[in-house]
Amino acid sequence: MTSGSDRLIRSLSPEEQAALAKKLFLDGAYPSTSDIMTLALQDGSFDFLHDEPDLYSLDDGEPIPCP
Question: CA-to-CA distance for 42 and 40, rounded, in angstroms?
Answer without folding.
Answer: 6
